[in-house]
Amino acid sequence: MHLSKKCSAFKVVLSALLIVALLQLIYLSFLSKFHGKQQRYRYSELFGSSGAKKNGHQEKNTRKERLRYSLSTGGIFDNSGQYRVYKNLIKSDFTTNQKPGSDPSSNVLALATHTTINNLHHLESLLERWQNPLSVAIFAHGQDVKFATALVYALSFFCPQIQALVDFHLVCLSGEMASFPEQDREHFAGLEDCPSVFTRLETHRDKYKNYAISGNVSYPNNLLRNVARGGTESSYILVIDMDMMPSADLHQQFLAMIMSRDPGSDEVFVLPAFEIRHARKMPASKAELVQLYQVGEVRPFYEELCPRCQAPTNYSQWVNSHVRGTSTLEVAYTLTWMDPWEPFYIGPRTVPLYDENFKQYGFNRISQACELHVAGYRFSVLSSAFVVHRGFKIQGEFHAKKDEENKHNRVLFRSFKEGLKTKYPSSTRRC
Fold it and tell me: What letter does residue 256 receive in the DSSP assignment?
């Protein structure tokens, strides 16, 4: 009798556990179906047909239509015929809404940058620091063309600040074409808000080591710089790499400075370039940077790889130069260019373009600085503005063909310098 009662109690407990387990399965199944339905709706909203303009999605459907149109043009070929360029693949609200007669101060300075899709995750922190118009040229190859198209559209769709300020341009090989990503539902179904897009980009980071792109494809850095530059109508442009960060408040400080002086079309404004240990937080002000510099956590850009490439900046003079106030930007001193200086600078949009024959590693920026010198430009170093590269540049991080590419581009640079004599016959300056 006692044993029978125990068995009955056990059966009751077991039955209760089975019912709970069954209810949990039903609940999980419901959640899964609900989540799947929600994901299908989000994907339909993101990449689906743009004909139905209802439910308050007119603006986002218009964005969808603009992307479809940009892709339908098939892009244009670069001068070499090796690359296909989709200029203004996605336009920001800032660019779209610019009208004749608008406040000229709103379009004084823009930032232009370039990257592959595996470095695009840096855009989040870069825009958080910059908070002004930004033009991004992306190089994609193979399957990354489709991936890049979908991800940059998702960024512009879900991220309000990117919608407001960032213009995207896409460059791929001439034999490749970008297409609207509506057939990739399963691959992109997890994109549901701005953080989720950057999470997806994070999973794609560091796919390639430096310039070692699969298929032995060359990274056309100077073409990308020109595309990004050409994607903005601003009077002045700062061109930097995607993994660099400008000092805080640079935009408004430069605006105040440029409005208080006579503009000169033959002057560029140099921002001393540094690199910082990966673990350190990016400095916002000169005072923060100098403090890190003095303890070796920040050092001149390329100090280990090519100290001569930045030495003419005269870091000692800049670090010790007096700043009249935390919000005041001014020219600290002016320098004459010397080989092999490759400064980062803010320049008028009229400065010569980068020579697109230079690809991969070596001489791509030096060649342009050299031309500025021959063309008669002055290099004015700004008192408290700077750029910082994420991480120390060290020998071991570079791809296997770096030295081979550098040697090839060195020969190209000699030819380039000879060409400048013909291009600027009246100039007495030489590189």
Answer: H
Q: What band does 184 get if pLDDT is binned at 50, 70 and 90?
A: low
In whole angstroms, give the CA distance from residue 49 to residue 37: 17
Q: For residue 235, which of 215, 270, 259, 253 has the smallest C-alpha distance?
A: 259
Lowest mean pLDDT among 7-11, 152-156, 179-183: 7-11
Distance linking the first and last C-alpha atoms of the chain: 106
Token reading at 113: 């940058």
Cβ proximity of 269 and 378 under 8 Å: no
Which residue's entry shows tokens 């693949």? 89
Burial of 393 (0-12, 13-18, 19+ CB in 10 A): middle
In the three-class reduction of DSSP (H, G, I as helix; E, B as strand; rest coil), residue 91 is classed as coil
CB 245 within 8 Å of CB 111: no
pLDDT of residue 279: 78
Task: Give the torsion sign (CA, 250, 310, 377, 422).
Answer: negative
Q: Alpha-carbon torsion 148, 149, 151, 155, what sign? A: positive
Q: What is the DSSP string of 204-238?
A: TTTSSBTTBBGGGB---HHHHHHHHHHT---SEEE
pLDDT score of 56: 43
